[in-house]
């Protein structure tokens, strides 16, 4: 009964573990055997095991060699049995490594970390966001979930890719949503706006159902779906169309198209950032803070206070202790 359970346990192990155990067992067996039949030339059990590993792996240092006919016969069997098994073991490890890398690029491997960010959807905005995180000093793990991509290079993008429908529980569990801090849901550019927003809301519901505490940032294209996204559980709604519509209006109807073009190009080269207020700026005016930021090649544009964003509050506005400052800096 015990042997039967041991055999069952052995065959339930991964193949490379089984091969490693088999190699070790054969080397131990032949090392013990050569030590027993030629104790003069192999005075310790370790000497016999060393000879078995060196001979079985076909390295052949020659520091220990059997001299008797029986010992040489044992060596022949060791080369036939151990050499082939060691070669097969190395080939299996190589094949497993290549397969694992292929599965990683095709999004088949579950994420193992925690405190990571999940991004839903692969598009230009996603790529830029990943580049920003990679160029920063945050060292934040990113898991990308997308159903349209067939594969993505881990070496090139330094992200963990999960291929599949982001509304499916098993896909979100592979992304370890329960251990993630944030999930960013981008709008699908291949869909019409209403369809894309409905899909985004479904993604929000799925994410909130799998992790009630996760912070959800969602991109919504139409104003009519904004409330629904909030009801579904999104913490932050990003309306990318608002800025673009305003920019288009300025370009078409204002007197100076050149000025609008300069603004658009300038904003393309800037990055929005937030930072807790420095102690020396507490109880100072917004104007003082703005000058301080300009001296460091940054443009202070607003503050985040008590869950409220205040943009361009006025020069006499007083900064308080728990404020977070919103600014632009060059990429």
Automatic annotation (TrEMBL):
Tell me which UniProt keywords the record has, alphabetically.
Ion channel, Ion transport, Membrane, Transmembrane, Transmembrane helix, Transport
- Domain RCK N-terminal residues, every copy: 114-238
Alphabetical list of InterPro entries matching this protein: K_chnl_dom (IPR013099), NAD(P)-bd_dom_sf (IPR036291), RCK_N (IPR003148), Trk_Ktr_HKT_K-transport (IPR050721)
Q: How does it sit in the membrane?
A: Multi-pass membrane protein
Question: Which cell locations does it reside in?
Answer: Cell membrane
Q: Output the PROSITE patterns linked to this UniProt entry.
A: RCK_N (PS51201)
The residue ranges crossing the membrane are: 15-37, 49-67, 74-92
Q: Which GO terms describe its biological process?
A: monoatomic ion transmembrane transport
Q: Which Pfam families match?
A: Ion_trans_2 (PF07885), TrkA_N (PF02254)
Name it: Potassium channel family protein
């Amino acid at each position: 009964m015990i042997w039967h359970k041991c055999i069952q346990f052995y065959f339930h192990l991964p193949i490379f573990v089984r091969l490693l155990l088999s190699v070790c067992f054969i080397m131990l067996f032949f090392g013990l055997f050569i030590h027993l039949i030629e104790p003069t030339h192999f005075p310790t059990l370790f000497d016999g095991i060393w000879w078995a590993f060196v001979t079985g792996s076909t390295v052949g240092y020659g520091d220990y060699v059997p001299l008797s006919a029986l010992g040489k016969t044992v060596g022949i069997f060791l080369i036939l049995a151990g050499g082939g098994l060691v070669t097969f073991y190395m080939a299996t490890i190589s094949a497993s490594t290549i397969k694992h890398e292929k599965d990683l690029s095709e999004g088949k491997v579950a994420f193992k970390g925690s405190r990571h960010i999940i991004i839903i959807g692969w598009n230009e905005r996603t790529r830029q966001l990943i580049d920003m995180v990679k160029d920063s000093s945050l060292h934040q793990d990113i898991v990308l979930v997308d159903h349209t991509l067939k594969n993505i290079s881990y070496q090139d993008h330094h992200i963990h890719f999960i291929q599949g429908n982001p509304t499916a529980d098993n896909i979100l569990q592979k992304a370890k949503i329960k251990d993630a801090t944030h999930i960013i849901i981008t709008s699908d550019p291949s869909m019409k706006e209403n369809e894309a927003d409905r899909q985004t809301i479904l993604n929000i519901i799925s994410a909130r159902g799998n992790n009630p505490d996760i912070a959800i940032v969602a991109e919504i294209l139409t104003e009519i779906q904004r409330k629904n996204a909030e009801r579904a559980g999104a913490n932050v709604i990003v309306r990318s169309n608002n800025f673009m519509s305003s920019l288009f209006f300025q370009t078409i109807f204002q007197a100076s198209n050149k000025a609008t073009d300069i603004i658009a190009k300038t904003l393309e080269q800037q990055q929005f950032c937030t930072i807790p207020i420095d102690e020396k700026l507490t109880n100072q005016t917004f104007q003082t803070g703005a000058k301080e930021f300009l001296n460091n090649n940054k443009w202070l544009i607003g503050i985040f206070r008590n869950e409220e964003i205040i943009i361009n509050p006025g020069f006499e506005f007083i900064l308080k202790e728990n404020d977070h400052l919103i600014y632009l800096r060059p990429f």
